[in-house]
TrEMBL record:
<dbReference type="InterPro" id="IPR050194">
    <property type="entry name" value="Glycosyltransferase_grp1"/>
</dbReference>
<feature type="domain" description="Glycosyltransferase subfamily 4-like N-terminal">
    <location>
        <begin position="22"/>
        <end position="176"/>
    </location>
</feature>
<feature type="compositionally biased region" description="Basic and acidic residues">
    <location>
        <begin position="408"/>
        <end position="435"/>
    </location>
</feature>
<dbReference type="InterPro" id="IPR001296">
    <property type="entry name" value="Glyco_trans_1"/>
</dbReference>
<protein>
    <submittedName>
        <fullName>Glycosyltransferase</fullName>
        <ecNumber>2.4.-.-</ecNumber>
    </submittedName>
</protein>
<dbReference type="Pfam" id="PF00534">
    <property type="entry name" value="Glycos_transf_1"/>
</dbReference>
<keyword id="KW-0328">Glycosyltransferase</keyword>
<dbReference type="GO" id="GO:0016757">
    <property type="term" value="F:glycosyltransferase activity"/>
</dbReference>
<dbReference type="InterPro" id="IPR028098">
    <property type="entry name" value="Glyco_trans_4-like_N"/>
</dbReference>
<feature type="region of interest" description="Disordered">
    <location>
        <begin position="375"/>
        <end position="435"/>
    </location>
</feature>
<keyword id="KW-0808">Transferase</keyword>
<feature type="domain" description="Glycosyl transferase family 1">
    <location>
        <begin position="206"/>
        <end position="357"/>
    </location>
</feature>
<dbReference type="Pfam" id="PF13579">
    <property type="entry name" value="Glyco_trans_4_4"/>
</dbReference>
<feature type="compositionally biased region" description="Basic and acidic residues">
    <location>
        <begin position="389"/>
        <end position="399"/>
    </location>
</feature>
Amino acid sequence: MTGRSDSLRIVRVANFVTPVSGGLRTALRHLGTGYRAAGHTPVLLVPGERRTEQETEQGLVVTLPGPVLPGSGGYRLLTDRRAVAHELTRLAPDRLEVSDRTTLRWTGEWARRHGLRSAMVSHESAAGLLRTWGLPAPLADAAADRLNTRTARTYDTVVCTTDWAAAEFRRLGVRNLARAPLGVDLAALRPLTAPERAHERARYADPDQVLLVLCSRLSTEKHPERAVDALAGLRARGLPAVLVVAGTGPLRSRLAARAARLALPVHLLGHVAGRDALARLLGCADVVLAPGPVETFGLAAMEALACGTPVAVSRSSALPGLVGPAGVAADDTGTGFADAVRELLDRPEQTRRAAARTQAEQYGWPAAVAAFLTAHGAPPGGPAQESTEELRTERKDADQQGTQPQDAEEKRADQAHVARRLRGADDAPRERAQR
């Protein structure tokens, strides 16, 4: 705890986080560290094997027992609402920040009952995920609209990291939105020198080969197979390319089988431990691929830019607006990504690497932390905004406008959302065939 009278205890709750998970874990760590540096008291509550408490650079991290979800790549889930509610009561937050719009949405109602200001951080496009899992666009959009309407009513603030992420809420007339981008660690992530790059890339590719890197969770919504297909397309055109994949997930074995069947040079590294090792990998690549079509920010792609490496990104995601001239937006096919890689390689190397770093420098973590604190009504260095009494009045007005109980159809959509996410949606084609 700090001695400041305006210091806030910001309790953050998240599912789908493991010691080896990627973007969300990184974002939570940097935000917590930033909140602490600004004089607040961050606490992170996540699932784990057992109950633990540990003081870290991002503040207190509490784990509660949660079951491992089969086929999810090791994810655990906070399923015991009573235990979570008890822990929240014990932690006595001033603000609640939730990074899950489905399995933890009930915590927004908990905050309402306790007179606390709450925020949900939208880390994904609901409609995009449902479409990725095979739901026809009209049905996906309708289900997402119901989910997003309920989310906006449940929390005081919906935090969106990009305008792209906010669009699915704005089309519903949602007004309690806050725009707060994520960031990149510009100090830890830097371009390699030419000798450093040559030394590092020698581990993966010959000097005359093109080194492609995919840093991603290997799950259905990320579409890692498009990176393999892009590699196949480039080699069919006579370009001697190789692909290195950093990350794990339920599609790992399928990806390996695809590469073997096509006789492609694909190196599956699994989880890359240590930020330095990951930075060296990103920095030695010629191009980093980001094929996920529902990315609302895409930390791995932005980290690649910080390392001076250009990126080929999905045209359907938020990334084209973030990477700007430092990347190329690709159609969502292997051919589309092969074309994007070819376009990037046609640019002089020094030019494309300088453009990458310049673009990343617009997204430092200090600005991101400041934006998140503003969303919480707690600008850095200033007193917390909005008294508890004002908040209760706002909530009373909102309640009088009507918040209908969750209908059965929306509940089924929520359950399907969670179930598919847990197993990587591997079974979606079979389920549709059975229907």
